[in-house]
Amino acid sequence: MNDEKFVEVKNLQKVYDNGHEAIKNVSFSVKKGDLVCLLGPSGCGKTTILNMLAGLLNPTGGDILFDGKSVVNTESKNRQIGYVFQNYALYPHMTVLQNVMFPLTVGKQKMAKDKAKAIAEKYMDLTQITEFAEQKPGQLSGGQQQRVAIARALVQQPKILLMDEPLSNLDARLRLNIREEIRSLVKEVGITTLFVTHDQEEALSIGDKIILFNGGVIQQDDLGQNFYLEPNNYFVANFVGNPVIDNFNIKVKGGKITASDFELNVSDLDQSRFKRELTDGDYILSVRPENILPAEEGHVSAHIEDIELIGRERILKFSHDGVQARSLVNLETPIKPGDDVKLKMRLNRVFIFTPEGERVY
Ligand SMILES: Nc1ncnc2c1ncn2[C@@H]1O[C@H](COP(=O)(O)OP(=O)(O)O)[C@@H](O)[C@H]1O
Ligand SMILES: [Mg+2]
C-alpha cells in the first residue's frame, strides 16, 4: 500500500526522436483517490506525460511507479489504466453499448457477452447514457460522446483514469456543467484521476491539487489557492487569475522603489514576505486586480480608459507604462470611463519578481 504516492513520477524525461526535449526531469506524486489537474499552455508536455503513464510512449529517462511498483517495463494493456483521449476516439460503426462493452470483449480476460453487457450497463447508467445505448456516436452531441468515452474508460475498473483535455471540444456552458459531473463521477467511483487541461479556471474548480507545467518543467505543484496567494514565479502569477495580474516595471535603489508614476519605500512592504534581500536593480512588481483599488490616497494615478462588466464585478482598465492594467471593483463603485482615480495597492499582497521571473517578495 502506497496511498500517499499511489502514482509516482521520478525524474521523468522525454526527448523525442527529432531531439526535442519535451519533458525535462519531472517529479510528482498523486494520492490515491485524488483528482489532480495537469495544467499548462499548449505544447508544455501534458499529453506526452499522459502517454508515458499509459505506456503508449517510452520515457528516455526516469521512472514511473504505480502503487510503489515501477511500470516502465509493463506493457500498456497491463497497466490498468483508463484513458479518455482528447478526441474521444469512439468506434464510429459501433453503437454506444458496443463501444462501452468493447474493452471487456477483447484480449485475454475476454468475458461472456451477457456478463460484459451487464457491466457496461452499470457504467452507462453512472454516466447517464443508457437512453443512447443503441445509437451510433455520430448521432450524439459532443457532451454525450464524451460520457461514452468515460464509460468505456471505466468498464475495466482501472486503477488510474487519465483524461486529456476532455472538455476542450464542448461549448462554454456545457463545459461548466460537465466538469462538475466529472468530478462527482470520479469521486463516486473513487478512482485516482489525472485530468489534463490548459484552462486554469477548469483546473482550479475541479482539482484536488494542480501541477502547472511550462516548457516541460513543473512550475508549481500545489493546492489551487496557492497559485493565487503564493505563486512560485512570474510565469505562475501570470498564468493563473482572471482578470490577469497587473505587472509594473520598477527600479530599486537605496531602499526606494520607483515606477513610472509611483514611489514606495522597501520598508513599506511586509518584511516577513521577502524570500531574499531586495538588492538594487530592475524588477517587476505584480499585483492582482482585486488588490489594487480606488482610494483617496493611492499609489498609482490611473486614467480609466474602459470598464468591463464580469458578473457582479467590474474591471477598470487603465494604462501604465503603455501597458494595460486592471483594477477589479464591485458593481456599485461610481467610476466611469474617462475618470482619473488614485489606486492603492495592498502591499502585503503584491509580488516582486526579477526580470528572469524569480520571486523575491
Ligand atoms: N512525436 C513527436 N515528435 C517530436 N516532438 C513532439 C512529438 N509529439 C509532441 N512533440 C512536441 O513536444 C512538446 C509537447 O507536446 P505535447 O505533450 O503534445 O504538449 P501538450 O499536450 O501540453 O500540448 C511540443 O512542443 C510538441 O510539439
Ligand atoms: Mg495535448
Short recap of the structure:
With 361 residues, the chain is an alpha+beta fold. It is built from 8 helices and 21 strands. The protein has 2 domains: 7-238, P-loop containing nucleotide triphosphate hydrolases (Rossmann fold), CATH 3.40.50; 243-353, OB fold (Dihydrolipoamide Acetyltransferase, E2P) (Beta Barrel).
Overview features:
single chain; 361 residues; alpha+beta; Rossmann fold; OB fold (Dihydrolipoamide Acetyltransferase, E2P); 5-stranded antiparallel beta sheet; elongated; binds adenosine-5'-diphosphate; binds magnesium ion
Strand order of the largest sheet: 6-7-8-3-9-10
Q: Mean of residue pLDDT?
A: 95
Level of helix content? 10-25%
CATH fold-level name of the largest domain: Rossmann fold
Q: Could you tell me the strand content as a percent range?
A: 25-35%
Order of helices and strands: EEEHEEEHHHEHEHEEHHEEEEEEEEEEE
Shape: elongated
